[in-house]
Design brief:
The protein has 9 helices and 5 strands. The protein is α+β, with helices and mostly antiparallel strands.
């Protein structure tokens, strides 16, 4: 069992990172939260969850043990696989997810692509008493300072356009935030085009 991998970041995309560990490249699936944490770094340490099936061996990596623990809890719920769990953790920070579950907020969970009412209810019922044990210290933030009006306007316009195209607001906002954090000079049109490539 792999507990964690530490190595050089060979490739980094919003959904995947290739970690070079002593000359071996590991392709690791990540959430947008972990992607944000890895931006601008040459090396990384990721806590690993291995999904081993007859037809595939898939690695999921997380910047924190807390996010991995949430991933494991989510995949313990019937109907929630690794891809769906990663989608949830891309739409919300670990702290936001814990707050959502503890508040019985089905509506927020249903904004995540692939999560219907029944699945949202199962997640809340089955994990409500478990998430508190994680003792999360706080959510990761994409922006340390308060965003200016131009930033907010571009963000809202891009998220609005993506929502009209059929994408859920929560993951759309997360991707737009990541793109703006990376390059705040992007126009609204450029934001939408880049976001569509990542959806």
């Amino acid at each position: 069992m792999i507990e964690y991998l530490r190595g050089k970041i060979a490739e980094l995309e919003p959904a995947c990172v290739v970690l070079d560990v002593l000359g071996v490249g590991y392709s690791i699936n990540i959430s947008l939260n972990s992607y944000t944490a890895l931006q601008g770094r040459e090396e990384a340490k990721l806590y690993i969850y291995e999904s081993i099936r007859e037809d595939a061996w898939v690695l999921y990596g997380f910047a924190t043990k807390e996010e991995r623990a949430l991933f494991v809890l989510l995949t313990s719920v019937s109907g929630v696989g690794g891809g769906t769990a990663r989608m949830i953790l891309s739409a919300m920070t670990p702290q936001e997810l814990v707050t959502t579950i503890e508040a019985d907020d089905e509506r927020s969970l249903q904004t995540v692509k692939g999560i219907g009412k029944r699945t949202a209810q199962r997640i809340i019922v089955e994990l409500r008493d478990k998430v508190g044990a994680l003792h999360l210290t706080g959510s990761q933030k994409l922006r340390e300072s308060r965003p200016d009006e131009e930033y907010l306007q571009k963000e809202e316009e891009a998220v609005g356009a993506l929502t009209m195209l059929g994408f859920a607001p929560a993951p759309s906002r997360k991707i737009v935030d990541v793109l703006l954090h990376k390059d705040s000079t992007l126009s609204t049109e450029e934001l939408i085009k880049h976001a569509l490539k990542e959806m």
